[in-house]
């Protein structure tokens, strides 16, 4: 789910596509498609009057994040958004943080729609500055000006996106991988049976097993290889485990670089060194397999009718191999934690709603009469309730707490003038849990996404929940992420009844919104 590590944060092209994906009836506000007209701008309140925590002389608002002193210290993104919404209403401004531009939080879906409708063809998502510096400065010898989708903006971003868009976004692209992703899921099922304890529960470190599944899946798509993550004798210093560890270190380092005063721009800090270390290892491993793919292309007979893989198409399409190299690295870096934790969130929801789990089992059993039957693209398309369960999971527990855009033009938001260049934060996770947007918002009701069900009758605002983002900067890995997660979930439910007997699972919001509780799921074999 290429949401930059960082997110992983975007999706869908047209509003019609958005409506189809989420099964909602679109709201369309005329204002959403207009830029700030003179009369609207003149009537709006000044930018300086946007409510928010007041800055102190010299210190600004930095003190609020200092341990034991600051009132905002220790808050993750979700907690911060909740605090701002409760304290200041539908718009709030955070300014006075050294090294950071002003951030304006907006909580009205009409305003969110307005931002997306006015982002232009080259949307700006100004995040992960550490990754930008790493690619453009520290390892410019490797990237040579090709920054990838997560770290560049403007025309440079558009050129890169246009090179990879057709290869990555076409529905037929995933069909090439359906069989192998199914095999990865089957291997993971056997791994689950191997690591269960006498109570049929997963070990406390089951998150590492989920990472193995995520890495094994995305590595086949991004690098054309099976890494052997489910080897029962996998050692801590093995290549797969070191890659998993590198991803965890990379995400943690980027989070620390994002929230801390950016001293790393002046002097090397522990977080910066961790980012360089983890990213260097990713480059080392990725290049090994990418070079193998380049050699395969060279050895391919001119008259070969074999369909090229995604990596091979990227390498063959552009005479500059860096496009394929960078895209493969981005897929690998962003496609482990995001898919793993989204699958965990779905497992948690189904474990707490056994009636929904049984309804899903009945659907999967109809499509897969035998447990070992392979899931084809056609069979996946039949699993409507499965897709509804995933949409409902991503509404309640999206992997990213929200979206960010930098305004490319002046806009009026919540009746305040907000100038071009302002960083806009849109906390979708908070909005999607409000009853005014979703009746019984805290309840897991997949039926609300199925046409014809009574729960689907209410008109929903399409810009309340955007688990993959929206617009030109949508998550380019969405189709592959959906293939991996839906395949795994179908296979899990077909083989096991899932329980979680340790109370409500706790989540923490850092760079991603992830569970912090031990993932001690109970996996009970289904007899038929």
Characterization of the model:
- By secondary structure, this protein is an alpha+beta fold.
- 47% of the residues lie in helices and 8% in strands.
- The strands form five sheets. The chain has a four-stranded mixed sheet with strand order 3-4-8-5, with helices on both faces. The protein has a two-stranded antiparallel sheet with strand order 1-2.
- Strand 3 (91-94) and strand 4 form a beta hairpin.
- Helix 9 (178-195) packs across helix 20, helix 10 packs across helix 11 and helix 15 packs across helix 18 (384-396).
Task: Walk me through the topology.
Elements: E1 3-4, E2 7-8, H1 15-22, H2 38-43, H3 77-88, E3 91-94, E4 103-106, H4 109-117, H5 129-138, H6 140-143, H7 154-169, H8 171-175, H9 178-195, H10 206-223, H11 239-259, H12 270-299, H13 310-317, H14 322-334, H15 337-352, H16 354-367, H17 377-382, H18 384-396, E5 403-406, E6 411-413, E7 416-418, E8 423-426, H19 428-431, H20 478-495, E9 496-499, E10 507-509, E11 513-515, E12 522-525
Oligomer: single chain
Count, helices? 20
> In which range does the helix fraction lie?
40-55%
The tally of beta strands, per DSSP, is: 12
In percent terms, what proportion of residues is strand? 5-15%
Q: For the residues shown, what is the average pLDDT? A: 87
- The class by helix and strand makeup works out as alpha+beta
The 3D shape can be described as globular
Low-pLDDT runs:
1-34
């Amino acid at each position: 789910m290429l949401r930059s590590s960082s997110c992983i944060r975007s999706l869908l092209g047209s509003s019609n596509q958005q409506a189809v994906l989420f099964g909602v009836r679109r709201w369309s506000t005329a204002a959403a498609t207009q830029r700030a007209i003179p009369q609207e701008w003149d009537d709006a309140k000044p930018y300086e009057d946007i409510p928010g925590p007041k800055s102190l002389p010299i210190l600004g608002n930095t003190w609020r994040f200092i341990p034991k002193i600051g009132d905002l210290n220790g808050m993750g993104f979700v907690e911060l958004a909740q605090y701002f919404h409760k304290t200041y209403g539908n718009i709030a401004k955070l300014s006075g943080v050294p090294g950071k531009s002003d951030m304006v939080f907006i909580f009205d879906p009409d305003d969110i729609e307005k931002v997306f409708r006015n982002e232009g063809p080259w949307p700006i998502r100004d995040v992960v500055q550490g990754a930008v510096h790493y690619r453009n400065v520290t390892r410019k010898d490797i990237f040579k000006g090709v920054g990838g989708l997560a770290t560049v903006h403007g025309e440079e971003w558009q050129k890169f996106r246009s090179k990879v868009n057709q290869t990555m976004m076409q529905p037929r692209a995933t069909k090439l991988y359906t069989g192998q992703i199914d095999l990865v899921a089957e291997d993971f099922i056997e791994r689950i049976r191997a690591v269960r304890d006498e109570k049929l529960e997963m070990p406390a470190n089951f998150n590492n097993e989920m990472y193995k599944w995520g890495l094994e899946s995305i590595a086949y798509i991004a690098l054309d290889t099976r890494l052997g993550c489910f080897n029962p004798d996998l050692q801590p210093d093995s290549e797969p485990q070191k890659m998993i560890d590198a991803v965890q270190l990379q995400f943690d380092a980027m989070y620390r670089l994002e929230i801390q005063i950016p001293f790393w721009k002046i002097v090397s800090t522990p977080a910066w060194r961790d980012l360089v270390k983890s990213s260097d290892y990713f480059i080392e491993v990725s290049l090994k397999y990418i070079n193998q793919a380049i050699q395969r292309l060279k050895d391919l007979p001119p008259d070969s009718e074999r369909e090229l893989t995604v990596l091979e198409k990227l390498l063959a399409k552009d005479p500059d191999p860096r496009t394929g190299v960078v895209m493969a690295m981005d897929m690998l870096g962003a496609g482990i934690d995001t898919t793993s934790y989204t699958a965990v969130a779905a497992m948690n929801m189904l474990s707490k709603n056994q009636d929904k789990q049984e309804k899903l089992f009945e659907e999967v059993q109809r499509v897969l009469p035998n447990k070992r039957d392979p899931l084809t693209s056609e069979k996946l398309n039949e699993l409507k309730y499965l897709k509804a369960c995933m949409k409902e999971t991503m509404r309640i527990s999206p992997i990213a707490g929200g979206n960010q855009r930098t305004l490319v033009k002046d806009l009026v938001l919540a009746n305040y003038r907000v100038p071009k260049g302002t960083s806009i934060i849109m906390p979708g996770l908070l909005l999607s849990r409000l009853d005014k947007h979703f009746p019984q918002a805290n309840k897991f009701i997949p039926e609300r996404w199925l046409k014809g069900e009574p729960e689907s009758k209410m008109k929903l605002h399409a810009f309340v929940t955007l688990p993959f983002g929206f617009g030109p900067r949508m998550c380019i890995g969405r189709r592959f992420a959906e293939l991996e997660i839906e395949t795994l979930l179908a296979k899990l439910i077909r083989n096991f009844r899932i329980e979680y007997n340790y109370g409500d699972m706790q989540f923490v919001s850092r760079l991603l919104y992830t569970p912090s509780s031990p993932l001690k799921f109970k996996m009970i074999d289904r007899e038929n």
